[in-house]
Specification:
It is a single chain. With 185 residues, the chain is of the alpha+beta class. It has one domain: Aminopeptidase, CATH 3.40.630.30. 28% of the residues lie in helices and 28% in strands. The chain has 5 helices and 8 strands. Strands 1-2-3-4-5-6-8-7 form an 8-stranded mixed sheet, with helices on both faces. β3 and β4 form a beta hairpin. α1 packs across α3 and α4 packs across α5. Bound molecules: coenzyme A.
Length: 185
């Protein structure tokens, strides 16, 4: 599908741009991102270039949808949010996010996640039946955000050795939001 811009209070979720490369590279030097996410670690400028090049094709092939989180349409990115493992036939996808360290603690991830989950489950939006989430056990901030976005934590599962989550050696929390339980922004 074509890129779909979204908004949240005080935020725009718009397209990644090639000129975001330095901001993405800088943000992803934060060990917390390497610790808790599947973002490569250590993170190089080449990783950012590759990420910025693949986002558009992923939208076009409906495999993943990713947004830059900005305070203004032309401003620098302060975070990333996306839906991966998109399966339009099954009506499922998994949400994931990181926020640059300087922009944390201001509700950015919560607002962006509510916007993406609502759009994903809205029949007038993407119309999925379920949005999944997982996080390494102990990532309490991510769990708070997920629950505020209507995700019900269902339990724990072992980490998939084929898809390790950052530097975490713990189990994963997993959960999902369903169309009938979507929050209002
Ligand atoms: C997790 C992360 C996305 C949070 O971004 P953020 O914009 O600061 O999040 P928000 O401000 O929207 O909300 C964070 C919530 O978690 C809470 N929180 C933060 N640290 C917490 C902790 N250690 N224990 C419990 N709650 C915590 C905050 O108090 C806030 O809740 P509140 O609004 O009720 O006060 C950000 O820290 C990050 O990018 N971390 C590294 C990458 C990551 O972990 N991504 C998620 C992978 S599943």
């Amino acid at each position: 599908m074509e890129f779909q811009p979204l908004s949240a209070p005080g935020l725009v979720l718009n397209q990644w741009r090639a000129e975001d490369v330095e901001d993405v590279t800088a943000a992803c030097q934060d060990p917390e991102i390497g610790r808790w996410t599947r973002v490569p670690w250590p993170y190089t400028r080449e990783h950012a270039v590759a990420f910025l090049e693949i986002v558009g094709p992923h939208w076009a092939e409906d495999s993943a949808y990713n947004w830059a989180i900005r305070r203004t349409p032309a401003g620098p990115p302060i975070g990333s949010i996306g839906l991966k493992d998109v399966n339009l036939e099954e009506g499922t996808a998994e949400v994931g996010y990181w926020i640059a360290a300087a922009a944390r603690g201001q509700g950015v991830a919560t607002a962006a996640t509510i916007a993406v989950v609502n759009w994903a489950l809205d029949p007038a939006g993407l119309g999925l039946r379920r949005v999944d989430w997982c996080a390494a056990v102990g990532n309490d901030a991510s769990r708070v955000i997920a629950e505020k976005a209507g995700i019900k934590v269902l339990g724990t599962k072992p980490i998939d050795p084929a898809a390790p989550c950052g530097q975490c050696n713990t189990e994963m929390w997993y959960g999902s939001a369903t169309a009938s339980a979507a929050p209002t922004a």
